């Protein structure tokens, strides 16, 4: 049983639905609204100092979950509690593609609440972590490759030691040297009891960067456990899917579902209401 006060992020039976207008080109047939369920009863508790990878195919609800944790969207139903304001890598800094990397470092840090003096203090560390040279920092970001932009965003976002850091696919665009530096930076954050959520299609990235992994499938959590074993099952399932071996792929899904036990989340408000009842 998980007590909400002990955790950085707690989700209980989170559901998220979107309304899409269905198209029908036939005459005299009105289009109708279609409800799309992105998340279906997601529950988990994330302790401080844990790095959690979120695995799943396209459309499984990974990025939707991160946006909910970040506060950019609200759940349709369920309870979602966070200890502090998370930083979502990719939208955390208001970066401008027409400005240079150097200008964007300062702009991004100021947007996250730093003073100009604090920006000066962390500037060299940000550039060092990103691995970009002076020439690259002087160029507009619109000339950067996807990997270069992701590396700089990661370096900016982690410069403030965020209590809860959310990373959506950013690390998959970096090279091996950057992955090593990023891992060191994540270990530093975890040593200070920070919490990290990393979304990636790459099971190996989750395995190397995280201690725990959550597998989302069609909006539901079907596995939640050690990163190594969860990523291994996901990798095997993805390989079977790619080979069109759907029967064996479905068997993997069935097996991991059998092993998954949905957590019983107890919120502080539940205890308060219980204690307030007369017996």
TrEMBL record:
Domain (ABC transporter) ranges:
24-243
Return the InterPro entries for the record.
AAA+_ATPase (IPR003593), ABC_transporter-like_ATP-bd (IPR003439), ABC_transpr_TagH-like (IPR015860), Bact_Polysacc_Export_ATP-bd (IPR050683), P-loop_NTPase (IPR027417)
The entry's cellular-component GO terms read: membrane
| CDD domains cross-referenced by the UniProt entry | ABC_KpsT_Wzt
Give the residue range of the signal peptide.
none
State the Gene Ontology terms under molecular function. Answer: ABC-type transporter activity; ATP binding; ATP hydrolysis activity
> Per its UniProt record, what Pfam families does this chain match?
ABC_tran (PF00005)
For this UniProt record, give its keywords in alphabetical order, as a comma-separated list. ATP-binding, Nucleotide-binding, Transport
What PANTHER family does the entry give? Answer: TEICHOIC ACIDS EXPORT ATP-BINDING PROTEIN TAGH
UniProt similarity note: Belongs to the ABC transporter superfamily.
| Protein's recorded name | ABC transporter ATP-binding protein
């Amino acid at each position: 049983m998980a007590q909400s006060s002990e955790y950085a992020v707690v989700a209980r039976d989170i559901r998220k639905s979107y309304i899409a207008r269905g198209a029908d080109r036939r005459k005299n047939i009105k289009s109708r609204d279609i409800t799309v369920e992105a998340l279906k009863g997601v529950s988990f508790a994330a302790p401080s100092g844990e790095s959690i990878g979120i695995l799943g195919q396209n459309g499984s609800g990974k990025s939707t979950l991160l946006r909910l944790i970040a506060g950019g969207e609200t759940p349709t139903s369920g309870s979602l509690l966070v200890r502090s304001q998370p930083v979502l890598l990719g939208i955390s800094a208001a970066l401008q593609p027409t400005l240079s990397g150097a200008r964007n470092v300062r702009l991004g840090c100021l947007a996250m609440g730093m003073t100009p003096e604090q920006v000066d203090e962390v500037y060299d560390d940000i550039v060092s972590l990103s691995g970009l040279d002076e020439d690259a920092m002087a160029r507009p970001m619109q000339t950067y490759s996807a990997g270069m932009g992701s590396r700089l965003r990661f370096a900016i976002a982690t410069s403030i030691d965020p209590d809860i850091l959310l990373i959506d696919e950013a690390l998959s665009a970096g090279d091996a040297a950057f992955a090593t530096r990023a891992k060191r930076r994540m270990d530093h954050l975890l040593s200070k009891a920070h919490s990290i959520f990393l979304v990636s299609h790459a099971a190996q990235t989750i395995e190397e960067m995280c201690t725990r992994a959550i597998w989302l499938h069609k909006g539901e959590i079907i596995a939640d456990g050690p990163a190594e074993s969860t990523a291994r099952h996901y990798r095997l399932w993805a390989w079977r899917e790619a080979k069109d071996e759907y029967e064996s792929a479905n068997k993997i899904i069935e097996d991991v579902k059998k092993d998954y036990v949905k957590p019983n989340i107890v919120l502080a408000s539940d205890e308060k209401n219980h204690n307030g009842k007369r017996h």
